[in-house]
Specification:
It contains 4 helices and 15 strands. By secondary structure, it is α+β, with helices and mostly antiparallel strands. It has a 6-stranded antiparallel β-sheet, with no helix packed on it. It has a 4-stranded antiparallel β-sheet with strand order 1-7-3-4, with no helix packed on it. A hairpin with a 3-residue loop joins strand 14 and strand 15 (about 250). Helix 2 (about 25-40) crosses helix 3. The two termini are about 25 Å apart.
């Protein structure tokens, strides 16, 4: 199960007016599982992650990324013109253009890389001739927290002291410098985190480092809440039936909730290449 959730545990508990801690572990399990399920349903991810991918270009003038390979930004683009898989041709940003050109304005991902006419590069069409290191995901939306780090952090510490723990929620993903961390618990002003998540690397950080929180599309957050609430209630209906003889019985559906499907429809890819 991945270290991410599209809805924080604290916001999810508001749906049940739950101020206790009895079910906190189950809440996390359900929210993380549902977040992965939503990604699988739409064939794309709404979290931002770093990864290296390899592609075979069909044309010298552009590279179409397969469905589900949503690109936020390029770190390095290299090609292997002599088919020895050493990727010794490094492209400059003046060699290529990310498309659609208005993707950032529309808060959408890039899905094509086109060569520029003034550039000197073309894509080789040999197998796996393109190496692309980048930031992937549907969109990256960051909110700067009023809090900063309140200590120097080494690469192994999992208890992160901040100036105000109330500025964060359990199951938030946060960004400090270039490292993503996943918040699994909060005790006053100390965040317990998983370090270096989503392809980032655990690093050292100075006191008063800026902390940013990841945000996700509103429909995806609501879809996560609806579906997670249904799955959470399954603990009271192990055979898929909820209710009693006095008030009647309801059989819980095994498919995604219809409202969840409707919320996800604008983001769903028909097929994955």
């Amino acid at each position: 199960m991945g270290n991410y959730a599209y809805l924080s545990r604290d916001n999810f508990k508001l749906r049940f007016a739950d101020t206790a801690t009895t079910d906190d572990t189950l809440y996390r399990i359900v929210l993380e599982a549902v977040s992965e399920l939503l990604d699988e349903d739409v064939h794309r991810s709404f979290r931002s992650y770093l990864a290296t991918r390899y592609y075979t270009a069909k044309y010298g003038g552009h590279l179409d990324l397969p469905d589900g390979n949503d690109l936020i930004s390029v770190t390095t683009l290299k090609t292997d013109p002599d088919d020895d898989q050493d990727y010794d041709d490094t492209w400059a940003t003046t060699d290529y253009q990310l498309e659609p050109i208005n993707a950032q304005v529309d808060r959408r991902p890039y899905y094509r890389i086109r060569t520029k006419s003034q550039g000197v590069r073309t894509f080789p069409t040999s197998n796996w001739g393109v190496e692309l290191v980048g930031k992937w995901g549907f969109w990256e939306d960051l909110e700067t927290s009023p809090s900063t780090t309140a200590e120097v952090l080494d690469t192994t510490e999992t208890g992160v002291d901040v100036t105000a723990g109330t500025d964060f929620d359990v199951l938030d993903t946060i960004l400090v410098d270039s490292e993503q961390m996943y918040v699994t618990a909060i005790a006053t002003n100390t965040l317990t985190v998983v370090r270096g998540v989503n392809g980032t690397t655990a690093a050292t950080h100075v006191t008063a480092s800026v902390i940013q929180r990841y945000k996700y599309p509103g429909p995806v957050v609501e879809a996560c809440g609806i579906q997670a609430a249904r799955y959470f209630m399954r603990k009271n209906a192990p055979f898929g039936v909820l209710g009693s003889a006095d008030v009647g019985f309801v059989r819980l559906q095994s498919k995604l909730d219809p409202d969840v499907m409707a919320l996800l429809d604008p983001y769903r890819l028909v097929a994955v290449a």
